[in-house]
Amino acid sequence: MAKTLEKARKAISKKRSGTIDALHQNSRDSKRLHRAQIRDERLEKLASTKRKHDKPLLRRVRFFRHAVSELGNQPLELKVIQSKIHEYVHQYDEEYEAEKKTRRAGRPSSTKEDLLKMKITALEKEYRDGFYMPDLSTEQNIGMVNRFDGSWTFLNSLAWVKISEAGVVKPSSFPPQGL
Question: 121: Cβ–Cβ under 8 A, 6 or more apart, which residues?
């Protein structure tokens, strides 16, 4: 149960000597419980929206953490980093092609196919403009990436960069602006 509702319920039960079963529908106490419940639902909805918004960035860090561990937990050169970015950007290509092949001729594309196409084009555009990722060229940041525990708060301690397709590396800050 959520915090505000539990606090209101506890306060009302203390006031009514332990029982809150006999509340009148329009009483102040029932309205207080209703407001607390509405507030808790609203806060939960906001929190779930934020988690959904943060998920792609967390997935990105997990991908590069796995890539670094595959390559021996050593700082990576720009060419290797760009190949891993290319791998990340084109991770949906096979699934998109499979969806495209299953579609009959003359039919409009499916919703899943449209979503995959949008993901692919967004990632390609980001890579052209500057791909936002943790800095994998320093020993210290590699150690921090390896200690990544999946939480959003941990990402603030990492050094971030934007790497463009042309090979330009620009330091960046966290949280990302405009992703």
Answer: none
| CA atoms 160, 93, 122, 82: torsion sign | positive
Fold of domain 3-13+27-172? de novo design (two linked rop proteins) (1.20.1440)
Show Cβ contacts of residue 142 under 8 Å, excluding neighbours closer than 6 positions: 68, 73, 74, 75, 136
Of 46, 39, 47, 45, the closest CA to residue 4 belongs to 39
CA pair distance 166, 129, nearest whole angstrom: 9
Tell me if the pTM is above 0.90.
Answer: no
Q: What is the pLDDT along the chain (179 residues), one digit of tens a residue?
A: 567 778 877 777 777 776 676 777 888 887 888 888 888 889 888 888 887 777 888 888 899 888 888 888 888 888 988 999 999 999 999 998 898 888 888 888 888 889 999 999 999 998 998 888 898 888 888 888 888 887 777 788 888 899 888 888 888 877 776 55
